[in-house]
Specification:
By secondary structure, the chain is of the alpha/beta class. The protein folds into 2 domains: 219 residues, Rossmann fold; 66 residues, VP9 protein domain (Alpha-Beta Plaits), CATH 3.30.70. It contains 11 helices and 14 strands. The strands form 3 sheets. A 6-stranded mixed sheet has the order 6-7-8-3-9-10, with helices on both faces. It has a 4-stranded antiparallel sheet with strand order 2-1-4-5. Strands 12-13-11-14 form a 4-stranded antiparallel sheet. Strand 9 and strand 10 form a beta hairpin. It starts with a strand and ends with a helix.
Length: 314
């Protein structure tokens, strides 16, 4: 569906993104993550053909962005972080204006507008002035204008920025529903949002791609290079548990709460089996032992640290 091959973009002498390559398959909800200045906005502008890459190639649905940028724009619905809404228009009037701008035929316009209003839950707001809407409702209007024309690909830039918790949940559910029918790219700095909504993530830092994959794939990548974490619940006291540190595969034992310990192990084969065996050998009554999965926040931070360390070494 989307292929980005060796894309580099210069602003004068400054490199915004460097040799970026990734693919996004049809029907996926993909999170584009990275700290400020990572290159997310530049990549979005290149994907929407607002900018051309200085080097490399972008192909969307088989169309080369250099050869037919308008053909790509017809297949993409874009919601920028700050949607330019017109407060003196009603929701229906604004969507009619956008439909006309997109070249949707007059005979199809009413159907298209009704469809996106229904998809975005705006039936009660269609005749209201946009300036009277809540921030969450305005964000829904932003999504609705991106959906006009039935694009195959939906690109959303920070769709929940500035929303209250209830509004955030509403937009997340809307994105999940849209992801059942379309390829969605979600640019966000809110990591729990990406973990709850996206099938996979692309992580950028300093203009370079440092990782792409599902959360499980990224966890596995880190698991091969750093300590594994286990949560152990037992009646044993801290002094007894600290005896495990004498084992060569145990990195640390940390008491989280009374009777609850976090144990860090070296990334070795069957290390969990070796830990449980040693616990039994030491006469420790074991109530529970389970692997602690890395959250997206932990994955994100650790990948950035590794990238910075590698950059400093080079």
């Amino acid at each position: 569906m989307i292929q980005v091959r060796g894309v580099t973009k210069y602003y004068g002498q400054r490199v915004a993104v460097k040799d970026i390559s990734f693919e996004i398959m049809q029907g996926r909800v993909v999170g584009l993550l990275g700290p400020n200045g990572a290159g997310k906005t530049t990549i979005l502008r290149i994907l929407t053909c607002y900018l051309s890459p200085s080097e490399g190639k972008v192909i969307v649905a088989g169309i080369d962005s250099e050869q037919d940028p308008l053909g790509i724009r017809e297949k993409i619905g874009f919601m920028p972080e700050n949607v330019p809404l017109y407060g003196d228009m009603t929701v229906g009037q604004f969507l009619g204006f956008v439909a006309d701008s997109k070249g949707i035929a007059a005979r199809d316009r009413r159907f298209e507008i009704s469809k996106v209003i229904s998809q975005c839950g705006l039936e009660q707001q269609e005749k209201r002035l946009i300036r009277h809407l809540s921030k969450g409702q305005r964000q829904r209007v932003g999504v609705a204008q991106a959906l006009l024309g039935n694009p195959q690909i939906l690109i959303l830039d920070e769709p929940t920025a500035g929303l209250d918790p209830a509004q955030v949940l509403e937009i997340r559910e809307l994105v999940k529903e849209l992801g059942k029918e379309k390829t969605v790219i979600l640019s966000t700095h809110i990591l729990p949002e990406a973990s709850q909504v996206c099938n996979e993530v692309i992580i950028l830092n300093n203009g370079k791609l440092i990782a792409q994959g599902t959360l499980n794939e990224l966890r596995e990548k880190l698991r091969k290079s750093e300590e594994m974490k286990f949560l152990v619940r037992t009646e044993a006291d801290l002094k007894k548990m600290l005896e495990l540190k004498s084992e060569d595969f145990v990195v640390d034992v940390i008491e989280k709460h009374k009777g609850e310990y976090e144990i860090l192990l070296k990334p070795e084969l069957n290390v969990s089996g070796r830990l449980s065996k040693k616990i039994v050998e030491k006469g420790i009554a074991l109530f529970e032992m389970r692997s602690m999965e890395l959250s997206l926040e932990e994955i994100f931070v650790r990948l950035l640290i590794y990238e910075d360390e590698n950059s400093n070494q080079n």
